[in-house]
Amino acid sequence: MGKLGKKARKFAKKNLQSVLKRKRKIKSTFKKKASKNQRDAAENEEENVELSTRRNSENGDIEDMSLEAIFSEDESDEDEGDVDVDDSGSDGYLSEDSNCLPIAESEIHLGENGAAGKPSAQNQEILLELENKKKKLSRLKAKDPGFSKFLESHDKGLKSFRNENAYSDEDERSDDGMQSMDEDGPHLYLNKLLTSSAINSWCHLVKEQHNASAFISLLNAYRAACHYGAESTGILGSGSGAPMLDCETFCKILMFVLREADDVFREMLGISSNCKRDTILGLKNNSKWKTVRPLIKSYLRSTLFMLNQATDSEILAFSLNRLRTSIVFFAAFPLLIRRLIKIAVHLWATGEETVSFHSFLILQDVASGFSSDCFDLCLIKMYKAFIGHCKFAEPALFKHLQFLRNSFVELCSQDLLRSSNKAKVSINNLSRILQLGLQTKKKEAVKKICSWQYANCIDLWVTYISHCIHDYDLQPLLYIIIQIINGMATLFPGPRYLPLRCKCIEWLNHLSSSSGIFIPVTSLMLDVLEYKVSKEVGKPGKDFNFSSAVKLPKHWLKSRNFREDCVFSAIELLSAHFAQWSYHISFPELATIPLIHLRKFQEKSDVESLRRVVKRFIDVVEQNIEFVKKKRDEVAFSPNDQQSVEAFLQLEKCSGNTPFTQYYRSVMEKAASRSLIMNENKSFLEQKKQKRKRGQNIVDVRANGEKVPEKSKVDQAVSVKDGK
Which end of the chain is more exposed for a tag (fewer CB within 10 A), N or C? Predict the structure, then answer.
């Protein structure tokens, strides 16, 4: 059959079924390809957006993850509690009866130097002006008696209005029973300058006659002494009209009020010295309480203000000690409790040894004697203060950081249920930071993990778990903290992180000894012996304290001391690990693999002193293996008998006379003496540097008049003799 003509081909393309089918197939394939490409492009865009958001969120999480800001507080309540009550409309002084003031005005003036005597010229001018104003007022009263009666009635109305609102419990910032100064009639007390004779007479009246008016005057004087020199209060400072105090009067007021105020309050209320919080709360509807409440509040507020301003450690320690006896009265003032906790935590974290100790005793009493909210507040604030002060570790601060850690753990042990919840939150935060560091290995995450703040936070919870694991079920926290420590050790495997690895092994040994659970740490310790040391070993490096570093400097890796530190650290940590299990029935199997590695190291090592140390350790471990095997062959019980296995060699363990136990003691003593010598050498070098700096900063004048660094008098005499 011949070819179709042109017209026939056109007709076939348009009308034949086979041609139409092929066209439909081609169109459908093109549509499918286009749809697939569009979908792939959309999916790729979505994946890119997700990846970018995920990366941004990871970066943000690393930067935003803070060890301090994991616990939420009610900041609004905290701010309310921190507002000074003196900022309200009252000046904070208690109202006094003018007839009860035992000292005449002529006896209360002080001289310029604070001694009793004739008033100064400036004070004489002020007194003359006051006398002239009094005369003018008396003339005005004589001329217009109606106007004077109107002023008196208006003044009485204002006083009655203040007294009606004095005891309202709705606003804790109002000064209960505390009268504010009037513009035309200031306090009689503020117009007088305090002397030791006035204070002595008030103290005598309070102690012998139990005079309430004299005690109120003393509390006002105590408030003035606590606020003395504080410029933030509007009534103090130069020319403010506040009472002037010399040193002797200041000390008398503080000592008497701090010693006697608590006994006076309890006597006025008729309560015993060992009353509880419920007793104070039950006195709210008592008439005596309404009278004494303003006095107690004034005393507590003044003492807290002084604790926040004073810097002398002896005054702070004595004030904290006396305030602790009156701590039960804080039950009636919730806002003052928050301020007390805030001040006590600050002094606990920053104060000297005695101040920090007394502050902790107050926090302990508040946490145990008040509500659970107070316990949570103390715990959170102490945790944040500890984390904030452990960012930098210096040898001089180690003792204080240890006290902060141990005291925090002691406070946590008062309520293990609530403290374990807080510990879980903090430990989970540590694990999230470590997980991000292991996944991303970015500089920010690694830097946050390899820091003193992160390490001290782990040390805090390791101590807490070790201390409380027998009193409460802390097995979940124990498992998480072990995983975190192992993760830190694997994240930083290099030789520069030797101090951090040693700390990780110490934590694991501590957890194992306190919990009684076997934690394998030999692989971490044997890795220390396999660190590659540079063949070009230089001179012995300067004394370096491992306890004050997380990461070693690069030049230290080339020094002779680095290899010695690696070996000594491994032997000390292995000794601590073996000492825990040296009496266990499976000790021979536990020590087999470490001994193989130690023998290889002994053969390869070319330093005779290090080989002797390792050889001595191997010999003692082998002796202990033979001792355990001999005792194990004598027993008749099965390995499945758990009680008999746990009781194996317990008598020998209590005696502690085995060779390995004695060897371990000698190793620890040598390590302690080595660290002590290192600290002494470091302090000696620091003293030398300080002396050199002092010598460079002294200025001398030569014979030609040119100024050079001056020398001491002895050096000047020597230079004159030498003709310099």
Answer: N
Pick from 346, 285, 261: nearest CA to 311: 346
Name the amino acid, one letter, at 239: G
**Using CA atoms, how far apart are residues 451 and 441, in angstroms rounded to an integer?**
15
Q: What is the CA radius of gyration of the chain?
A: 40
C-alpha dist (Å) from residue 128 to 97, 112, 119, 134, 472: 25, 18, 12, 10, 75
Residue 94 DSSP label: B
Contacts of 455 (CB under 8 A, 6+ apart): 500, 503, 550
CA distances from 24 to 17, 30, 31, 33, 701 (A): 11, 10, 11, 14, 109
Contacts of 673 (CB under 8 A, 6+ apart): none
Using CA atoms, how far residue 270 sits from 167, 277, 296, 332, 562, in Å, is 21, 15, 14, 17, 70
Q: DSSP secondary structure string, 272-322?
A: -TT--HHHHHTTTT-HHHHHHHHHHHHHHHHHHHHHHH---HHHHHHHHHH
The answer to whether the CB of 93 falls within 8 A of the CB of 179 is yes
Break the chain into its structural domains and give their ranges.
194-227+244-327, 517-698
Work out the pLDDT band at 358, boundaries 50, 70, 90.
very high
Q: Could you report the per-residue pLDDT of 146-178, keeping only the tens digit for each? A: 767 766 765 554 444 444 444 334 344 444 444
pLDDT at 245: 65
Whether the CA torsion 220, 221, 222, 226 is positive or negative: it is positive
Residue 321 confidence (pLDDT) above 70: yes
DSSP 43-80: HHHHHHHHHHHHHHHHHHHHHH--SSTTS---HHHHHH
Handedness of CA 421, 427, 428, 433 (dihedral sign): positive
Please calculate the CA angle 403-409-413 and round it to the nearest 5 degrees: 145
The helix or strand, by DSSP H or E, that contains position 356, with its residue range, turns out to be helix 353-369
CA distances, 585 to each of 575, 577, 631, 646 (Å) = 17, 15, 9, 8
254 dihedral zone (left: phi>0; alpha: psi -120 to 50; beta): alpha
> Which two three-digit tokens encode residue 362?
């107050």
Residue 158 has a pLDDT of: 46
* 277 vs 500 pLDDT, higher one: 500
Q: Kindly report each contact of residues 67-73 with a partner whose C-beta sits within 8 Å and lies 24 or more positions away, as own/partner.
A: 67/387, 67/426, 67/429, 67/430, 67/453, 67/454, 67/457, 68/384, 68/387, 68/388, 70/425, 70/426, 70/429, 71/380, 71/383, 71/384, 71/422, 71/425, 73/377, 73/380
At 116, give phi and psi (nearest 5°). -70, 140
Contact 322, 315 (CB under 8 A): no
Q: How far is residue 246 from each of residues 188, 225, 309, 366, 379, measured CA to CA in Å? A: 20, 10, 18, 35, 41
Q: What is the DSSP letter of 386?
A: H
- Tell me the DSSP string of 164-223: HTTT-SS-TTS-TTBPPPPSSS--TTTTS---HHHHHHHHHIIIII--HHHHHHHHHHHH
Range from 21-35, 638-652, 678-692 carrying the lowest mean pLDDT: 678-692
Look up residue 280 and give its amino acid: I
Residue 417 φ/ψ region, left for φ over 0, alpha for ψ in the -120 to 50 degree band, beta for the rest: alpha
Q: Enter the tokens of residue 300.
A: 């507590």
Q: Which residues contact 304 (CB under 8 A, 6 or more apart)?
A: 336, 339, 340, 343
Tokens of 540: 């012995």
Q: Report the Cα–Cα distance between both ends of the chain, in Å, rounded.
A: 132
* pTM of structure: 0.72
Tell me the pLDDT band of 710, cut-offs 50, 70 and 90.
Answer: very low
